[in-house]
Automatic annotation (TrEMBL), chain A:
Species, as recorded: Rhodocyclus tenuis
Protein name (Swiss-Prot/TrEMBL): Cell division protein FtsL
Protein's UniProt keywords contain Cell inner membrane: yes
Key words of the record: Cell cycle, Cell division, Cell inner membrane, Cell membrane, Membrane, Signal, Transmembrane, Transmembrane helix
Protein family according to the UniProt entry: Belongs to the FtsL family.
Topology class, membrane: Single-pass type II membrane protein
One annotated GO biological process: FtsZ-dependent cytokinesis
Compartments it resides in: Cell inner membrane; Cell membrane
GO CC term, one of those recorded: plasma membrane
From TrEMBL, chain B:
SUPFAM superfamilies, per the entry: beta-lactamase/transpeptidase-like, Penicillin binding protein dimerisation domain
Family membership noted in the UniProt record: Belongs to the transpeptidase family. FtsI subfamily.
Predominant place of localization: membrane
Source organism of the structure: Rhodocyclus tenuis
Membrane topology of the entry: Single-pass membrane protein
Record field: transmembrane: 28-46
UniProt name for this protein: Peptidoglycan D,D-transpeptidase FtsI
Reactions catalysed: Preferential cleavage: (Ac)2-L-Lys-D-Ala-|-D-Ala. Also transpeptidation of peptidyl-alanyl moieties that are N-acyl substituents of D-alanine
Length: 89, 579
């Protein structure tokens, strides 16, 4: 009888320790998940900012200005244009 | 012994012990104690079982936190996905002045990061309010540096700021939001419900260090606002905007508008107005700049309405394209009023009435039509009706009921006076000439190719004839040589209308041009309106047609529409049109 009780006591203590460890691991993992989700949000914000930056750099007025002033480009005159026939979009 | 016995007796018999207390007293005490216990048990039962919400809440509040998860407003992009409006989180720095006791060194650091004067900062922090914003909407990187200083009484929270990278170019189309993130103008207002995000919430358990340990209870996920993809093409929008701006500056005009519409789908590819504003910096805004004229302002369109009158007469079989109309001597008196052509013509065919834009010719053709027939046609092409684009403040224009038309009114309406339309209505009405007689609804958002539900107004045969006449207007002998586009056949009509001021037609003009290309199978419709050109030229063919030409040409090339004519440009002088 005493032996059985001892055995049960050891099992109970083992279970208790396992619960503590499991809880601890769960919290660790949860914090890791939180951190990753936070990171995802930050990346999303950064994506928005980069998109904004991209559109700001790529506004047509800026492109035209650089094309005309820096790269000395211009629209070809009609006389110098040959239209490739039969190409439908 | 006796004595001893007596003494013992005395000690043993204390008079107190001899007191015989009544039995109920002890019972009373016991009862009171039991009653007190019962009250305690009852109270604890009440607190723990019956009415436990309050304590539960108090207990939860020690470690449980409800967090709001913010949702962002949807992005607005053009048809190719280029961003026109986007929200990005910014930080606002606040302070509780009573707690903010900063050392001189700390306040100097803070002032430097906030880019304010240290004195100004000290003045703000000395205020007796319980909460103040030091700086709203600063970049997150700066906010992080401020947080790293760990200043007492200084905190920050997240706010969203809306950016419009294309600025004034698309200002009227996209509109803007207020400080609370609600749409106030344009698409931001029109699509407010879709763009709006709904914040979510979650409750969590936080530990002593403020870290989230566990989710408890239900999580309500945040719903970000929907992204809106407009029909707008930002390249074409830029072309339209810059050409319009240039023409207005050259002609010293008061205002103007331009609309580019895809005739195949009814999508609005570009819509620009002048004057405009920068939606990113709205400090000095006036009502005039804010107005999306192409949609909210009606004007008397002038000769651009002639093709509708002629098309109706052709449709009803009252005239043929080669019927002779005697337009001499350039004057026509109806009742007490006289209609005149600015350049008198002799006999003209119906086609030439359009080509030379003769008011007398149009009025004579209108006389062959019943008022109701004309009204029905104007109504069917959408004049006097809300264009239903979904824009705030769309006007219907003015189309008076036919029963009250006087003969002179019917005559003037045939060439676009006494009736008013908005630029977008006019552009939409021209879809009947671009699509073999079918009027289609316009769309601000990008449409998937599909079957459009239009209404047939004219027969395809009538439309082909009118389109041929509109092509003549752009060729030598017509009023709008400057509307030609190298490589494409163009059909279009000029308009030059006197402005009505206080009920009298003044010597101020609205120059307009509406046209389509390629004429063989129209793909685009461009409508241009320039209000009060005052640098000498005021004819639609001189002021508005060049804008049409450069925008149409560039837009067709951008879309890769195959050319349907040789690139040689016909030259010659444009004939002066009638008003």
């Amino acid at each position: 009888m005493t032996r059985l009780n001892l055995l049960l006591l050891i099992i109970a203590a083992g279970c208790a320790l396992a619960t503590v460890t499991a809880q601890h691991t769960a919290r660790k993992l949860f914090q890791a998940l939180e951190a990753e989700q936070d990171h995802a949000r930050q990346l999303d914000v950064e994506f928005g900012q980069l998109q904004l930056e991209l559109s700001t750099w790529a506004t047509p007025p800026r492109i035209e200005k650089i094309a005309r002033e820096k790269l000395k480009m211009s629209t070809p005159e009609p006389a110098r244009t040959i239209v490739a026939a039969g190409v439908a979009p | 012994m006796r004595l001893k016995g007596r003494l013992a007796h005395r000690f043993a018999e204390s008079p107190v012990l001899l007191l015989r207390l009544p039995a109920w007293r002890s019972r009373m005490v016991a009862l009171l104690i039991i009653a007190a216990f019962a009250a305690l048990i009852g109270r604890s039962f009440y607190l723990q079982v019956l009415n436990n919400d309050f304590l539960q809440e108090k207990g939860d509040s020690r470690y449980r936190r409800d967090l709001e998860i913010s949702a962002s407003r949807g992005r607005i992009s053009d048809r190719n996905g280029d961003i026109l409006a986007v929200s990005t989180p910014m930080k606002s720095i606040w302070a509780i002045p009573a707690d903010a006791r900063l050392s001189p060194e700390q306040s100097q650091q803070l002032a430097r990061l906030l880019e304010t004067d240290p004195k100004e900062l000290a003045r703000k922090l000395a205020s007796d309010k319980s909460f103040i914003f030091l700086h709203r909407q600063i970049p997150p990187e700066t906010a992080e540096k401020i947080a790293a200083l760990k200043l007492p009484g200084i905190g920050q929270n997240t706010e969203y700021r809306r950016y419009y990278p294309t600025g004034e170019m698309t200002a009227h189309m996209v509109g803007f939001t207020g400080i609370d993130g609600k749409g106030l103008e344009g698409v931001e207002l029109a699509f407010q419900n879709q763009l709006l995000g709904h914040p979510g919430s979650r409750s969590v358990i936080k530990d002593r260090r403020g870290q989230i340990v566990e989710d408890v209870g239900s999580i309500r996920p945040p719903q970000d606002g929907e992204d809106i993809r407009l029909a707008l093409d930002s390249k074409i929008q830029y072309l339209a905007y810059s050409q319009l701006k240039q023409a207005i500056e050259q002609n010293r005009a008061k205002a103007g508008g331009i609309a580019v519409i895809d005739a195949r789908s009814g999508e609005v590819l570009a819509l620009a107005n002048w004057p405009t504003y920068n939606p990113n910096n709205r400090e000095s805004l006036s009502g005039g700049q804010l107005r999306n004229r192409a949609v909210t302002d009606a004007f008397e369109p002038g000769s651009t309405l002639k093709p509708f009158t002629i098309a109706l007469a052709l449709e009803k079989g009252r005239v043929r394209f080669d019927t002779q109309i005697d337009c001499a001597p350039g004057k026509l008196t109806i009742g007490t009023a006289t209609i005149s052509d600015s350049h008198p013509h002799g006999p003209l065919t119906v086609a030439q009435v359009i080509q030379k834009s003769s008011n007398v010719g149009a009025a004579k053709i209108a006389a062959m039509l019943a008022p109701q027939e004309m009204w029905d046609m104007f109504d069917e092409v959408g004049f006097g009706q809300v264009p239903e684009l979904g824009f705030p403040g769309e006007v219907t224009g003015r189309l008076r009921p036919w029963k009250r038309w006087r003969p002179i009114e019917q005559a003037t309406m045939s060439y676009g006076h006494g009736i008013s339309v908005s630029l977008i209505q006019l552009a939409r009405a021209y879809t009947v000439f671009a699509r073999d007689g079918e009027l289609i609804p316009l769309s601000l958002t990008r449409q998937e190719p599909g079957v459009l539900k239009g209404t047939q107004v004219f027969s395809p045969q009538t439309v082909r004839e009118v389109r041929a006449m509109l092509e003549m207007a752009v060729l030598p002998g017509g009023t709008a040589l400057k509307a030609q586009v190298p490589g494409y056949r163009v059909a279009g009509k000029t308009g030059t209308a006197h402005k009505l001021e206080g009920g009298v037609y003044a010597d101020r003009y609205v120059a307009s041009f509406v046209g389509m290309a390629p004429a063989t199978e129209p793909r685009l419709i461009v409508a241009v309106m320039i209000d009060e050109p005052s640098a000498g030229k005021y004819y639609g063919g001189e002021v508005a047609a060049p804008v049409f030409s450069s925008v149409m040409g560039a837009a067709l090339r951008t879309l890769g529409v195959p050319a349907d004519a040789s690139v040689r440009v016909a030259t010659g002088d444009a004939e002066k049109e009638s008003l």
